[in-house]
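To illustrate this point, what follows is a protein record of this kind.

___
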Amino acid sequence: MIKELKVYFVVETDAATKTDDAYYTWILKNFYPEITSAKGLNGIRLSFDFIHMNGKMNYRSRKIDEKIKSFKRMRKENIYFVFCFDLDSTSNQDKNFLKNVDAFCRERDYFLIMSYREIESVLKVKHKTLSKSDRVKEFNRKQPKKDTINVRDLRVKISDLGKIDGESNICLVIDELCKKAS
């Protein structure tokens, strides 16, 4: 019997462009191929979907809260919410934002993924000059090679983020989700 975890990634992007969807899907499919497959791994299968915030400052919005509540009503167990943010800099303003988001997620038993500078730098994607809608097309056309990404850079504790561009705690969070299920 496979235990299915349903994970909703609550991402900064909007529903029209879905840039973060493409990036997080790529990471999951490339670094966790077994657990995201139909067969699962060790009796666990992770299925995922996205909730779009339309900007990072909307994480506390009523609209996002209502979406989460509706998903919780549909599924009572093995459902998790992961808020995903880019830590644009190490300024006091961004550090305060991180502190507030961390407290928000802890209070609600949500998970938190932070990427230093942006998720694109984690994947070594350089297409800042493109429009948001063209970024997904370009990413799908020219995806990164898995071996160009140092998996250690995806296992950085939030408290240590901000030292090297392209760091994230995404793998730590996915590992923690899998441990909860087993």
User: Anything to note?
Assistant: Strands lie at 3-11, 44-52, 79-87, 111-116. Helices lie at 19-31, 62-74, 92-108, 119-122, 132-141, 170-181. The chain has a mean pLDDT of 85. The radius of gyration is 16 Å.
